[in-house]
Amino acid sequence: MDVGKMYMGGEWVEAVHGDTWKVYNPATGDLVGEVAFGDGDDAKRAIDAAAQAFPGWSSATARERAKYLLKLHDLVRAHRDELAELVSLEMGKPLREAKGEVLGAADNFLWYAEEAKRVYGETIPSSVPNKRILVMRQPVGVVAAITPWNFPVNMVARKVAPALASGCTVILKPAESTPLSAIRLFELIAEAGFPPGVANLVLGKPDSIGEAFINSEKVRKIAFTGSTRVGKLLMEGAAKTVKRISLELGGHAPTVVFADADLDAAVAGVFESKYRASGQQCICTNRLFVHEDVHDAFVEKLKARVAAAKVGDGRDKSVEIGPLVNERAVEKVMRHIDDARSKGASVVHGGSRLTEGEYAKGFFVAPTILTNVQANMLVCQEETFGPVLPVLTFSDEEEVVRMANDTPYGLAAYIFTQNLSRAMRVAEALEYGIVGVNDGEVTQTQAPFGGMKESGIGREGGHYAMDEFLEVKFVSLGL
Ligand code: ADP
After folding, report:
1. Are residue 175 and residue 276 in the same domain, yes or no?
2. Is the CB of residue 386 below 6 angstroms from any atom belonging to ligand 1?
3. 230 lines ligand 1 (CB under 6 A)
4. What are the residue ranges in the chain where pLDDT is below 50?
5. Is residue 334 in a domain?
6. Under 8 Å CB-to-CB from 321, ≥6 apart: which residues?
7. Are residues 210 and 290 in the same domain?
8. Same domain, 284 and 200
9. Whose CA is nearest to atom 4 of ligand 1?
10. According to the model, what pLDDT value does residue 5 have?
11. Would you state the pLDDT for residue 336?
12. Do 164 and 273 belong to one domain?
């Protein structure tokens, strides 16, 4: 098995200190790869390469930058099956989901190839006759991007594409458990012919690499997706050199099913938003509020849908729910289920780890539905990041909005109702960056994605993401 390398300054390199890291399939426990495992010293090499490449890349025309991004789009699409298989292999998600993710990543490269050409400035009427006010937008500089394991290709694309489109150069540090798809993506970046140093890949020790990013004066921006804990560390660290930051952090998404909802559509939406990626995405439904009048009917329908979903190795095409990422994730999910049970919750479906037969070597938890849930249970207080759905009831709109907002998080929320006035009222009242109305699948390339409160700062997606990588410069022109 070849050892996967890092990519910097246009070259494939081993770790400075020669360390390596093994990658396992979470569905089977099989060893599936080995990669270079660097640290801050490797990050410094990558930063230097990115800084060297910045003057050339930032002064290239937008059309030229777009040309490389378009080529990358074509390559990612052409290799979609291979990339999707790698994602499923190292992260566990079903192939269907992995393919959707890879096509989403390709779409980002396409979108930002176009967006590169629309970095418009402005002229503003001056209050002084012999002066002119010009506003330019220029790339912020070297960007450090840090990504998690749950969307190992698209989280990268969502940062790298707008960064490169705006004229920044980039160093990517992907998650330890999913380096294989990142390496493959960088092989395609190399094939697309980007000039050396424009996009760099560093793998290895998160804290040491993070420190190198934070301490470098050359890094002008950190783009991060991951836990709120690490996001806060990076935010604090970025203060040292007043770097720009954008953070996509944890969520604790509420979903509200009103009595006037189309229950079948709500079941489909809740299933999608809860069990996709086995509940391991930050926009996953984490608390479900169902109006008391429709609670029993809704839970019955949802139970039937969940019972019909096949759990297993994501590479099996019939599988809808894959494994969790590792043992620590299983322990957390089981702790949440056990805590809820001990405080009086009823297990309507699932509730246990799957350990027999095909599940024996993987990290599987049965998709779980809990009722009789109370606010004092861990499932209502922390992000579970697993296939566990706690169901609470409510009786009126104001009460449920208050409960839904009662969290430090503010990423995504979902409501199901057929009443347009209610939909608008509640969408406005929810303190969340994304609200799905009769929609459980809210991510699109061109739409702004990001959170309020402790869920983050800044937005990815669409033209909004470009602002995160551009400085505004005011030129005062005396005539
Ligand atoms: P999770 O618990 O979901 O893995 P993390 O926030 O720990 O979320 O990880 C998200 C990304 O942040 C990963 O690439 C991880 O390696 C990286 N990371 C973890 N700790 C640090 C740190 N101290 N500095 C920089 N990056 C970090």
Report:
1. no
2. no
3. yes
4. none
5. yes
6. 94, 275, 278, 309, 310, 311, 312, 367, 387
7. no
8. no
9. 148
10. 98
11. 98
12. no
Per-residue HEC secondary structure of the chain comes to CCEECEEECCEEECCCCCCEEEEECCCCCCEEEEEECECHHHHHHHHHHHHHHHHHHHHCCHHHHHHHHHHHHHHHHHCHHHHHHHHHHHHCCCHHHHHHHHHHHHHHHHHHHHHHHHCCCEEECCCCCCEEEEEEEEECCEEEEECCCCCCCHHHHHHHHHHHHCCCEEEEECCCCCHHHHHHHHHHHHHHCCCCCCEEECCECHHHHHHHHHHCCCEEEEEEECCHHHHHHHHHHHHHHCCEEEEECCCCEEEEECCCCCHHHHHHHHHHHHHHHHHCCCCCEEEEEEECCCHHHHHHHHHHHHHCCCECCCCCCCCCECCCCCHHHHHHHHHHHHHHHHCCCEEEECCCEECCHHHCCCCEECCEEEECCCCCCHHHHCCCCCCEEEEEEECCHHHHHHHHHCCCEECEEEEECCCHHHHHHHHHHCCCCEEEECCCCCCCCCCCECCEECCEECCECHHHHHHHCEEEEEEEEEC
> Which CATH number does the domain housing residue 46 bear?
3.40.605.10
- Is residue 333 lining ligand 1, measured as CB closer than 6 Å? no
Domain count, the chain: 2
78 C-alpha vs ligand 1 centroid, how far in Å?
30
Query: Which of these is catalytic: 90, 97, 168, 282?
Result: 282
What domain range is 374 assigned to? 253-445
Mark whether 52 and 114 lie in a shared domain. yes
Shared domain check, 412 and 471: no
Q: Is the CB–ligand 1 distance for residue 215 below 6 Å?
A: no
Q: Residue 23 domain-assigned?
A: yes
Give the position, in ligand 1's atom list, of the atom nearest the Cα of 229.
6
The atom number, within ligand 1, closest to the CA of 213 reads 25
Tens of pLDDT, residue by residue over 1-36, are 799 999 999 999 999 999 999 999 999 999 999 999
Domain presence at residue 450: no
Taking the C-alpha atoms of residue 129 and residue 478, their distance in angstroms, rounded to an integer, is 9
Residues 379 and 472 in one domain: no
Task: State the CATH number of the domain containing residue 437.
Answer: 3.40.309.10
Gap between the Cα atoms of 271 and 293, Å rounded: 20
**Given the residues 248, 320, 383, 460, the one annotated as active site:** 248
Q: What is the pTM of this model?
A: 0.97
**284 included as an active-site residue:** no
240 and 265, same domain (yes or no): no
Q: What is the pLDDT of residues 413-432, one digit of tens each?
A: 999 999 999 999 999 999 99
Q: What confidence score (pLDDT) does residue 90 get? A: 97
